[in-house]
């Protein structure tokens, strides 16, 4: 059986907003007398309880209401997100079994490709309904030979012809050109899956309104050092298609693609021109094209995969710089093409706020300390509430998408650092000539 996360009904949103409003209202009433609003609030409350209540008090009420909304806007936002981190899932029977072509670009991956192919061949998806297409073009090690050995064990096909252009997108397009499947699944050469992963990708596509699926991506080498543990924690929330994707699915917001562990309809992919070979991030390019055409991407929480991440800062930072440069470039293209720039801009701001909550947490802690010293307990409460909600999101992320390895929470500072680094990269103009390159994982 395949689990999917349905969009929540409007009633839940109204109930959640009402509950948050009650909480914020209670806190405002309790702490406003101990804040910069004390003179206005005490005068307003006295007039409300004992009279006389005049027009000037209505104006004061509007000022207090507006101020309260501003003060509690951020904690309320993350409180809303936290409330959507929980909910029911729907179960569908995996009766839909179209032919699936699994594309794997694998240049010089002799150390990892064997485990990847072994995990794919252990898939419980019907072997007569799948093919594994490994593109080993340009390999100078034993990658091609290893893949050919696996070809005798199952539906593995090896392509080692020349590429028109350097990089992963060109390799994917070479595999796509001869792919037989109705659906295309994409994996990296160091990615391993669970037996039920492909089935969990395919089942939601039985709905004609779903055009692609994305599943959670965990970190294979998370125990290697502090950096990989921090990346693993980051992955439980966003970078590995974790809790944020579940929340966005319930809220009915668009889902993003990552560079691996996704499945898409081949006809649609080809109509979009395949994989963009000139892009630094072909997955973001594809995602924005799908977004522009309002093609639905569904998050499949049980379609789990795991891969290696760079354990050294030089390699990881280079990867993140490329990601950020590619994201910015694809955003610019979208903004240039779209006719509804306002909607696209608000969508981007919403996503950036959701994705960068880790960066706001230390800021909220510092502000809480400052406001406490200054004796403003209303602002202190708002800052502390932000900290509580954001840390709770992290705990739930580990519980749901980190195999309940709560020791990862100790590496939250690394998560914060990674978020701040990528945020900074977003404002730095990338070097000229930057192009897609393989990321070292050792």
Rg computed from alpha carbons, rounded to a whole number of angstroms: 25 Å
Secondary structure tally: strands: 12
Distance between the termini: 37 Å
Bin the strand percentage: 5-15%
CATH architecture of the largest domain: Alpha-Beta Complex
Mean pLDDT: 93
Instruction: Tell me the helix content.
Output: 40-55%
Tell me the name of the CATH homologous superfamily of the largest domain.
Spore Coat Polysaccharide Biosynthesis Protein SpsA, Chain A
**Anisotropy-based shape:** elongated
Whole-number count of domains: 2
Describe the sheet with the most strands. 7 strands, mixed
CATH topology name of the largest domain, in short, is: Spore Coat Polysaccharide Biosynthesis Protein SpsA, Chain A
For the biggest β-sheet, the strand order reads 5-4-3-6-10-8-11
